[in-house]
Amino acid sequence: MFWKLRLPLALTFFVGLVPIVTFFLTERVFGVSFVRDRVEQYMVIIAGFALLLGVVNVVQGNVRKIERRRPGWPFAISLLTGLFVMGTFGLLSAFRVGPFQGILSAPDGSDTPFYWMTRSLFNPLQAAMFSLLAFYIASAAFRAFRVRNIEASILMVAAFVVMLGRTPLGEYVFGWIPGGHRWLPTFTEWIMAVPNTAAQRGIIIGAALGAAALSLRVILGIERSHLGVKGKS
Amino acid sequence: MTPDTWYDPSRVGAPLVLLLVFSALVLFFIQRSRQGHALFIRRIAGITAMEEAVGRATELGRKVLYLPGGGTLDDIQTIASLAVMRHVASLTAQYSVELDVPNKDPLTFAAARETVQEAYIQAGRPDLFNNETVHYVTYDQFAYTASITGLMVRDKPATNFLIGAFHAESLLLAETGQTVGAMQIAGTAEVTQLPFFAVVCDYTLMGEELFAAGAYLSKEPAMLGSIKGQDITKAGLIAFLILGILLEIFGIHWFRDFMTIS
Amino acid sequence: MAEAVGTWLGAFLTLCIFSFLYRDNPFFRFAESLFAGISLGYYIGIVSNNTLGPNLFQPLFTDFSGRAHLLIPMLLGLNLYTRYLPKIAWLSRISLAVYIAYYVGINMVQKLQGEVVPQVGQTIMNPIGGTYTPIDNLIIIVGVLAVLVYFYFSIEHKGVMGPVSRLGIWFLMLGFGAAFGYTVMGRVSLLIGRMNYLFLETVNATVAVF
Amino acid sequence: MQLERLANIDRRVVYLLIAIGTTLPILLPIGFAVSTTPPVENLYHKIEGCGTDDVVMISFDYGPTTAPECTPMAEAVMRHCFSRGVKVIVLALFPIGGVTMAGETVENISAEYPHLRYGEDYVFLGYKDGAQATMKQMGVAFSGVFPRDQMGTALEELPLMQRVRNYENVSLIVSIATNVIGEWWANLVNAQFGTPVAVGCTAVSAPKYYAFLDTGQMLGLLGGLKGASEYERLILDGYPELRRIYNRTGVYNAMKGMDAQTVDHAIIMIFILFGNIVYFLIRRRDRRLGTA
Prior knowledge:
The complex is a heterotetramer.
Chain B: H1 14-34, H2 45-60, E1 64-69, H3 76-95, E2 99-103, H4 106-122, E3 134-136, H5 141-155, E4 159-165, H6 169-179, E5 183-188, H7 194-200, E6 203-206, H8 208-218, H9 221-249, H10 254-259
Parallel strand pairs in B: 1-2, 1-4, 2-3, 4-5, 5-6
Chain C: H1 2-18, H2 26-62, H3 71-79, H4 92-123, H5 134-150, H6 161-209
Helix pairs in contact in C: 1-2, 1-6, 5-6
Chain D: H1 2-7, H2 11-27, H3 38-48, E1 55-61, H4 67-84, E2 87-92, H5 98-112, E3 122-127, H6 131-138, H7 142-145, H8 159-163, E4 172-177, H9 181-193, E5 197-201, H10 206-214, E6 220-223, H11 224-238, H12 243-246, H13 254-291
Parallel strand pairs in D: 1-2, 1-4, 2-3, 4-5, 5-6
Helix pairs in contact in D: 2-13, 4-5, 4-11, 6-9, 11-13
């Protein structure tokens, strides 16, 4: 029990101090270049191994779904098929097995099956999902922008003015006054550059301090939820 | 290019001073708080609403969905999310509500599993935790989003927690959650996504509130002390800012120069 | 030909995703589950090709003794799987602890050095001068201070704190509204791209075949 | 009860209108008048000042994800150069799909100008990894980074490249950029070598780029679809023969995109106004019922 708790916390403390201390030092100090060059690379490798952890969980969950004929089980088959086909091409290409001598393009510049699947299936799915935002941003604006109170009104008016100012419509509003066609676009740019900057700066400074305080709590072992260990003072 | 000193002169100025002052203040207030000095922390609506949100799931007999965000475990927002997750998991264990934590980042998935399982054990309900409570989906931002929106529409969770680092998917998730009638508590420090959460969700923990949430929920003196230390640093920075601006007006650039990284 | 088939497949899947706007349906579920599977397969390939291959296996295979230090991350990575062995399940926490601790340390200095210092530094300005008018500069200064006051946790927002933190919220709302309105254009551009794909590119790809 | 129904219109009505509002303008151009702004005009006038001896470099620093905004800019600038007989050197520095974008654009636009000859009037260098290093090396010699062009021909065999050695022989660099690469052209190439730089970027990154315009590191700036449509407007006014290209149906351009943007923005704003009017009516009714 001692080791189960103490070892992770002790490691957290010492490993956490490493980047903080080396941050202020130059590579003339022993060990600094090791940390800068290698530790980051180590972390990427650990993260790489973790992906398989996720894959195992996905396969387990979906196989169980098919076995128990849970609702929607046929879709688990299409999921596993996609995973298997794409994953196999990916692994074969990554480790240059047989005719698979490259992941996104073969040595002669031609497309690989992995790339074909990426371009024909993966990329359109990504782009389609991403573009749904155009619909959602419209329905969210309609539903949420109501002048309920001062805060909601400020929110709405700011959004409305900026939307107007960013299109030719913004030029038409005061376009009948000589020189007026630039008023709204200019005002829009002002909102973005002045009050918006102030709000963003305030959030960033506050959030950065909060993040630093949380970091300190983790390094000191006060915050340890991520290890599944209950905190105590 | 390498400077001939053992320390990096561009970094030991303001950043080092800030780091030392900040750490000292936080440590001081942690110590003070542990000695029993009571601390006031104001109410944060999104945090107070969490219990009600889980209670709602009990009434409706539906699950609680907890999304730890699209960030990886190297993002501090994800660590903040795990701290909140721990609390939410204790609540769902106490109320015997089903909890569902789908993950995008595999390491976050590993950590979340530890967090939730331990919370269930501590709450005396290890029987409620199973292999599907915390599960993995996929590493791709929009594939993950597609799966989660589908899940929301089919399972109709009573409450959605969207807490952590979110990017363009924020609005897709929050808007879908809204259509299925879920109560939504969001929290992120991504400045670009805060507007969408603020517009769509019932409660939003903004920036610093997200990082304070875990400490606030734990109610432990050491945690609360660290918030106090952070606040005092902030007060110091505000004073520093005002003084700096006054000096600027008189043409004295000390403060500005000190904060300008060469 | 493969090009045209690819374009048509892509267009079909795009429509499957768009059908979700009407309601959940088997086409969307198919696209969604295929998407989850393919994307995971994609990252298996990419992570092996870009990380595990060149940074771990190839160096180890070509020069084992010289790169034996790479066994450290490899063991830490494999150690994640002890989770499946109940007796030593706790060991996996060591890998998590090391990973988290390293990035938490990095985050701490980066946030202070990269965000707090420059953002405060930029706000320390003489209101008269610079690219903006004095009034603009004052608005920025007041806005930053008010938002910081809003985030002050350990004092009740009463007295002077009350109105100032209220002003902070107003600034936040103004910023959020503006950012929301500003983003609409980018999102619509994405949709325009998809509509082009559906209406123009599929046609062009088909024409190219014949 | 009627009012509540209006306040909670099915969101699918909004979706449908957005879908129509995006598709129709692409298929049937409307042509909202856009006024042009100085950052765009500057670039136009710079190219207007170029003759057949001048060389303009167009760098494709974006990928397929931002193509709806960026491709029309690249096309318009390239058409402008070709119409004036200005020589063009094309390259790509964006890793994910930049070279594909460049290849497609060169192919499409050069087909519109059949009298122009590859190697004499325009050259496509291809893609190189590591944008900053590439930019620096090109200051010495293009052939140092691109010994051969995209088709594998050695640069010394291309007539145009025989007289164009490095930035000194280039009158203008136009970077169509989706991220930081556009900035590098300004603060690296313009700052070190003095070659004028103009950038076309997505609407999202435009505000950040205005700072470079203020300092003169960028000569012109096209921001998002709006900037692209302004440029199209300028070349159409200057070169009426381009109308036959821009009025074709079935081909996308920024003016059509801007029409779609305008219609969609209008739809959203009308819905917001409508929602608030209904909200007011409900409140007024409830207040009246409450006092009655």
